Amino acid sequence: MRQFGDERNISSWAGVCPGNHRSAGKSKSSHTNKGNPWLRSALTECAQGASKKKNCFLKDKFWRITTKHGGKRAPAVMAVAHNLLRFVFQVLATGKPYQARSATPLEPQQRERMIRHHIRRLGKLGAAVGQRGPAPLRPRRRTTAAKAAASLTNPGFSSPHGFLTFAAITSPCFFGTCPPRN
Length: 182
Fold this sequence. Notes:
Largest sheet: 2 strands, antiparallel
Radius of gyration: 27 Å
Low-confidence stretches: 154-158, 162-166
Number of helices: 7
Shape: elongated
Number of domains: 3
Helix content: 40-55%
Mean pLDDT: 75
Order of helices and strands: HEEHHHHHH
Structural class: mainly alpha
Strand content: under 5%
Distance between the termini: 90 Å
């Protein structure tokens, strides 16, 4: 690996080094160079495989970059391929086996944001979820059609939001076969 010198030279030769074209503080369109077509295609295939592997930090990196670029996967594939080539170079240059890194843990701020997001989504679906934190969820605004549908159902079978619960639907009284009350 002495003929390449360092990771930057082999990345450039393979055609997976990140492009950088900035002017006046704005990022312009930047493309990678052609490089070695066989190595480049093998690295991109491996990068696509790594993006689907469970509990892999490369998968997290792939999806971070994909969402950052508005769903475009090509920049993310190139970034993961670049990382893979760097790992291969380090293994071949040092002669030491690769030590796999685990997925990076979420920062507390990211974790709390994800919890709030999923609680909000479950609330919109009508599921009652315990509150976390001081800020309560806003109740969902009921439309006129939802109010009319709630008034048609038996009040004993509806949830506070006007939706039918699973217990109400599976009850024999819901279908009109309820035994008479004394």
